[in-house]
Each structure stands twice: as structure tokens, then as C-alpha cells.
TrEMBL record, chains A, B:
Keywords: FAD, Flavoprotein, Monooxygenase, NADP, Oxidoreductase, Pyridine nucleotide biosynthesis. Gene3D superfamilies: FAD/NAD(P)-binding domain. Belongs to the aromatic-ring hydroxylase family. KMO subfamily. Catalyzes the hydroxylation of L-kynurenine (L-Kyn) to form 3-hydroxy-L-kynurenine (L-3OHKyn). Required for synthesis of quinolinic acid. It holds the Pfam family FAD_binding_3. The keyword Manganese does not apply. The gene is kmo. It catalyses: L-kynurenine + NADPH + O2 + H(+) = 3-hydroxy-L-kynurenine + NADP(+) + H2O. One of its GO terms (biological process) is NAD+ biosynthetic process. This is Kynurenine 3-monooxygenase. It comes from Flavobacterium alkalisoli. Its cofactor is FAD. One of its GO terms (molecular function) is FAD binding. Residues 6-355 form the FAD-binding domain.
Length: 446, 446
């Protein structure tokens, strides 16, 4: 057991709320600060992409007994449903034996997490703006405005779970030897909506993550409990097919009629939603170190914000908590070691999932529509079924395993080199599941 | 001619002062702000690496007629002098026909530049702290402390020439879609000193940049006008041979006796200077965009801080001014276009010199002591002399030409691939200047 401490968590998002529960369970007094109002009291913003919870996320919830409660608001998706103009809908299964990722509304989940944390005895302070942190003594500085009066809030430890634009990190950035990068994609996104049928059922297959892959841009849709789908249009800001180019009702409708004709009937409020909802940016943020002495630690998006194309932002943040909690169990009151081991073990994995997420835009927006890529996936699945000890596909290692992300990236690169060679085999389309191909893969693996 | 404007330059360093002169000459009212006292009134800090001015830097000075005045305080260095334990001193010439880089004291040069700017009619405001900038209307916010009272200083344009930790950029960083990275090396540096002989002459060859290459670490020395040399020890912060390991007089003296025995006699104040002078960090900083509308622009280290191993930090910053000035001549009052073209044309070159500088640590600290590398340099020089139209060595293209840095990087990579192949030739040591080798290079070039 650890000596009970007074701990502040900045940020009441998913990672902040769950971390607060873990810290409370470990016997600490936990205060959570957020500059926004209580999410349970407000309308959602129209700029969220639905979450896809997978193994790593569930493990963090199950460890504190919350998995089952959250499963009640989650919808399993065991496959991609690929929409290509002029072709029948095609399903691509994610894993084996019904392995699924789970669609969750970010807002709904966050409300639930805050309530669960409160029930545990965590105290929340909403609409409280933290402008700065004194790192050396874990003191928060809160006030109404950045240039106004501030008051000091002294803690034993501070966790920065305040997202990609973290104020806690902002202070750490000013330290010497603090490595930092933020890189925005030229692709942005906008939320759209497919409402439920009148009887409350879903208009599209409920247990699929729907993708309309169009190379430079794509539309995706994830199911909600109420029969609707939250859609996200990913598209460049500028250029031929871009947010800039869709400047009025006419250009928008013409664009959707050309590229997404099958959505016309199911997105009735296209024009209104498109021009009402904001166009949001996508950023990859990396930094190091993540901790300051035994006083302050960053967690989740605050230290590793990634683009959403692997659906692992929340999963990676929840895994931070799992690892931190393991280290708390291992090292007790030695917070110096806990923080040091935490950042050393998590950093390469955060970098790896950032890279995998960045690459996955190409996979989702282009390759899912490519026959050669689908054949490759089929070969991998076939070989993996015959030799599960020799081959775990990259997607499965990332999503349906607890193996480190860094391992997934490295092994994924090896597998890619092997598959590039296999796909060169003459007549691979016909003999993809032949003993010759099987032998060749085994040979290349050794 | 441009319409006269009221322009603020934040930062009175080398780039800020020279930019101010250019802007004044173009007819503008120019105010320069600096948080530090007037450099002409203070002692230098003991943390500077001497500058190595080369073609790009001289061009910017000559364009406004200042080159000759600065040449009077510059010492030409036409070669590297390599110090290896147990071997005679070896000279490696930088270019051909006496092409030289020029050693300059940063402090001395900066003092001179401020005086020259003042003589032109530029107004300087020292010890004036700029904490923030309102980008949309080019307004500076100055005050004694970050959290105290500020007053507003309104301009037509603001230039941020305030270095790697620029406050002007700091405001731009908070914009969406602003890409930014800062990466610190694990290697730091410390200034040491080789005093003059009693008669004012130099203790080592005056017209050389001296290097004691020791792989992970190295010592360098650049000549000063007064007969002394400014030395810089580059070394990892942690590890076997590191700043951390040199914690007392004994360990320091033992280290120097082992690795730099030839310096013992010429660095008399080693122990005192080592423990008095700070250990400084080395950072590469990249960002984009560099401008905000037609109101604010970053220049020099404020938008592209690089490590010092190519000696091009100041040269690159001065070249920013050359390009900006060309665009001012070309586009007149169309500052939107001036700023846009400026950042588009300079960004790839800033990235290229950052990469070249990063790589050059290896060249200086390891390769200069490697016989194979020296042979390669010899072959390049021989071939270049025979075929000047076909081969300009990378170092010369960077240092003794005005070709874009990005071109130098790209062509340098091609040349490296060719030389890698040439160095594989059996018996290259004997036939390095044979017709066979000459033909092979010509063949690989086409």
C-alpha cells in the first residue's frame, strides 16, 4: 500500500476520470480540475469522432471492475464495411472468432466515467481554469483569466491529463532539455450524422465500422445506441476535393452525389450539419520527458496526442494508467522510480502508436478499396490461422493483444517486407493458399 | 520603393541588428527591442562558440556595405587542424585557392552591429521585455514581469528575431495548424580558453579551426584577434566520458591528460574555467508557418535554430535577410506576397541546413580522424579540380557558394552514394587518382 497523498488531476476527460478512480482506489485524496463545465450538464459539441474501445481499453476498465457497466453502452464492430461506388458492400473482418472493437460515444462514456469517479469519492472542480503549475512543489495556479488574479492550490502530486493542448505540459515545455513536437495534418475532419430509422433501428449494418474510402479523403460511420451513426468526413483543407472547395450548398451536394451517392438517403441533414459543425484539425504531439521529479506527470493525450486512424488514442491513454498502476503496486512510495519507469516504458510505445496511426490513414482511405491489399490480408489471415504461433497480423497485435505497440510496429514492418515479397509471386491470385506460398512465408520468417 | 512603415524588430542579436539596418535603408522607421542590457555595456557570458562567417554571411553584410568593416575583426581559417594523440598535427583544407571561413567573436560582432545600426538611425530599446504579441495588429506587449502591468506598442509590422526561445513565435505556436518541434541533443558544450602568448601571438596556428576529435566528444578552438582561442568542449551530459562524470578537479585533470594531453600547456585555467562556465544545451528547433498575415514574421534562430556543427546558424539567418530584401525589392508594398514567398522559399533551406548541421557532428568528432574519410575527401578534391562543372564538394556548396542549402543536401546525398561505391574499389588507396577511378565517377554521375 502507498502512503495516502493529496493528488490533483488536471482534466476530467476519459483518461483523467479513470486515473482519478485508480488513484482513489489506491487510497489517495483525489481532486480533478477542468476548465469546462461538468460534461453531464452540457450538450455535446458536434466535433467528436466515436471511440473504438479495444483490448487495452477494456483491460484498464476491467481492472477496477467498470468494464461491464461500460459494455452496456458499447456496440461491437467485428468488421469494416467498405462502400465503393458501383460495387456491392464488402465486409472485412478485423480479427478471428468475432473479435471486435467497440463503438462508444465519447460524450456518453465521459459522463459515465465522471459519475463513476464521483461515486468512488473523487472530488471534481469544474469551470476551474488552471493556467500554470509550479513543477517543483506540485502547486496549481487557478483563476478566471490568464492575466487576472490566481490562487494557489498545493498538492503532493499533479497529473496532467489535460489533453493535446495541456497547460501542465506547457509549463514543462519551458524547461531546458524538453523535447517537443506538434505536427498538424493537412487533412481535417467534420462530424455528420446518420439518424436512426423511425423504429429506432440502424439504417446501415450496426456491427460494422463503415468506410467510404476515396484515397485522399474518406467518410466513416460508427454506430450509436440510439440507432444513429456518428459520421466523420476526413478531407484535405485545401485542394481539388477539400473543405475549402465545399463552400456552398451546391458544391457540397454535387460532391456528395459524385463521391458518396449511397449516403444521400441516409444523411438527411447534410447541408445544415456540414455548415454548422466545425472543421477540426488533426495533430500528432510528442514530447519527453513526461514527468518532473516525483511531483508532476503527464498522461494520455497530454504527452502523446495521435491522429485517430487506428482508433487508439483512448486505448493508449488507458494503457498508460494500467502501467502506472502496476508500477505503483511494484514500487509503493518510491514515486521517483514509479515516474521514471513509467515514462521510460511508455514513451517508445506512444511513439509507435503515433506512427501506426499516421500510416493507417492510407490503409483506411486507399488500401481498403484495393483488391491486391485485400488478397494480402486474406493470405495473412489464412497463414495466421494455420500458424498462430508464427504470425499475428499487425492489426490484431495492436488491437486484440496487450503486446507493446513498439513490438507491433517492429514486427509489422518485418511482416510487410515478407508480404511484399509474397505478393510478387507469379500467379499469387490463384495459388495464394498453396503449400508453395506457405513454405515461402515460413522460409522468409526464419 | 516601399511606403515607409513603423516596424518593430524583437531581438538585438546579429540577425535583429542586421535586419534593422536593411529595413532602415528601405526607408522604414525601425525600433529594436531586447530584454537584455545593451551588449556594448556588459561582459560576455562565457557560453559563446565563436562564429564562422562564410559566403552567405558576407553577402548579406556586403550588400549594405558593412563587409569591409567586419572583415577587420575577422580571422580567416582556410583549414581544419586535427589533433590526434600520438600523431603529428594534420591540416585539412576547406576549399581551394585559400577559400576560408572567418572566425569572429559573437560578442564583438554583435556590439559592432548594434553601433552600425544606431549610426543608420535605428532606435534600440534595451532591457525592455516583450512578453506577448497580438498577431492580428502587430502590437507588442511589454512590461517588467510576465504577470505584471504591460503596455502596448503598436506597429505596422513586427519581426521576431528573438532567437531559439522566441516570445513572438511562442504566441504563434498557440495558433491552430502551427507545426513546431524542439529537440535537444544529449551532447552539451562548455567554453574554455587558450590565452595568447605573452607577446600577443597565438599559441596554435592562427588560421586553422582546431579540432581534437574523440568520437563521442571533441574539443574545438577558434582564433581571436587578441591572440587567444575560444575553445568549446562538446560532450554528452551523461555516460562514461561526460559532463556528469567530470565532477571534480581530479576527474577533470585525468580526463584531459588522457584525451587532450596536448592542451594541458595551452589551457592554463582549465579547472577554474570548467567549473565556472555553464554547461550549455544544443537544440534543433523547427516550425511553420513563419509569418502571420502581412503583420508578423519570424527570422533567424526564432524560426530555425540549429546545432552549431556546420557553423551556419548566423549565415543562414543572414541569408534570410538577403532573401527577404530581394522580395521587398521585387514586390514593393505587397507584404502579403513578400511574407508568403519568404517562408516558402526559406523553409526547405532551413530544414536542410538543420539536417546538415546535425550530421556534421559525426564528421567533425569522428570522421576527421579517419584515414578512409580523408582519402575520400582527397579523391573528391582531385576529381572536383579536374571537373569543376561536375563536382562541387558538399562542404564547398554549403559554405563557399550561394546555392540553396536544400540543393546542397540533395546533391550531397547523391555524391555520398557515389563515393561509397568508389571507396569499395579494390586497391583504392593506390589508384585513387587513376583514370579508372575518374571514369567510374563520371559513369556513376550520369
Amino acid at each position: 500500500m502507498q502512503t495516502p497523498l493529496k493528488i490533483a488531476v488536471v482534466g476530467s476527460g476519459l483518461v483523467g476520470s479513470l486515473l482519478a478512480i485508480y488513484l482513489k482506489r489506491a487510497g489517495h485524496t483525489v481532486h480533478v480540475y477542468d476548465r469546462s463545465p461538468d460534461i453531464r450538464t452540457i450538450q455535446f459539441s458536434g466535433r467528436s469522432i466515436n471511440l473504438a474501445m479495444s483490448h487495452r481499453g477494456w483491460r484498464a476498465l476491467d481492472e477496477v471492475g467498470l468494464g461491464d457497466e461500460i459494455r452496456q453502452i458499447a456496440i461491437p464492430m467485428d468488421k469494416r464495411a467498405i462502400h465503393i461506388v458501383g460495387e456491392p458492400l464488402a465486409f472485412q473482418y478485423y480479427g478471428k472468432d468475432g473479435e471486435s472493437i467497440y463503438s462508444l460515444s465519447r460524450g456518453l462514456l465521459n459522463r459515465k466515467m465522471v459519475s463513476l469517479a464521483e461515486a468512488e469519492g473523487v472530488e471534481f472542480f469544474f469551470e476551474t481554469k488552471i493556467w500554470d503549475v509550479t513543477l517543483a512543489d506540485a502547486t496549481l495556479h487557478a483563476g478566471d483569466t490568464e492575466r487576472g488574479e490566481w490562487n494557489e492550490l498545493k498538492y503532493d502530486k499533479v497529473f496532467g491529463a489535460d489533453g493535446a493542448f495541456s497547460r501542465v505540459r506547457h509549463r514543462m515545455q519551458r524547461q531546458s532539455m524538453f523535447n517537443y513536437s506538434q505536427e498538424f495534418l493537412n487533412t481535417g475532419y467534420k462530424e455528420l450524422n446518420i439518424p436512426a430509422n423511425e423504429d429506432g433501428t440502424h439504417k446501415l449494418d450496426k456491427n460494422s465500422l463503415h468506410i467510404w474510402p476515396r484515397n485522399d479523403f474518406m467518410l466513416i460511420a460508427l454506430p450509436n445506441l440510439d440507432g444513429s451513426f456518428t459520421c466523420t468526413l476526413f478531407m484535405p483543407f485545401e485542394g481539388e476535393n477539400s473543405f475549402e472547395a465545399l463552400k456552398d450548398k451546391d458544391s457540397l451536394e454535387k460532391f456528395f452525389a459524385t463521391y458518396f451517392p449511397s449516403t444521400i438517403d441516409v444523411i438527411p441533414d447534410l447541408v445544415a450539419d456540414f455548415f454548422k459543425n466545425p472543421t477540426s484539425t488533426l495533430v500528432t504531439m510528442k514530447c519527453y520527458p513526461w514527468t518532473y521529479s516525483d511531483k508532476v506527470a503527464l498522461i494520455g493525450d497530454a504527452c502523446h496526442a495521435i491522429v485517430p486512424f487506428y482508433g487508439h488514442g483512448m486505448n493508449a491513454g488507458f494503457e498508460d494508467i494500467t502501467i502506472l498502476n502496476q508500477l505503483m503496486g511494484q514500487y509503493g512510495d518510491d514515486w521517483d522510480t514509479i515516474f521514471k519507469e513509467y515514462e521510460i516504458s511508455r514513451k517508445p510505445n506512444a511513439d509507435a502508436i503515433a506512427e501506426l496511426s499516421y500510416r493507417n490513414f492510407m490503409e483506411m482511405s486507399s488500401k481498403t478499396a484495393d483488391a491486391k491489399f485485400l488478397l494480402q490480408k486474406k493470405i495473412e489471415k489464412w497463414f495466421s490461422a494455420k500458424h498462430p504461433d508464427k504470425w499475428l497480423p499487425l492489426y490484431s497485435r495492436v488491437t486484440f493483444s496487450y503486446r507493446p505497440y513498439s513490438e507491433a510496429l517492429a514486427i509489422g514492418d518485418q511482416q510487410k517486407a515478407i508480404m511484399d515479397e509474397i505478393m510478387q509471386i507469379d500467379g499469387i491470385e490463384e495459388k495464394w493458399n498453396s503449400p508453395e506460398v506457405e513454405q515461402k512465408i515460413i522460409e522468409l520468417l526464419s
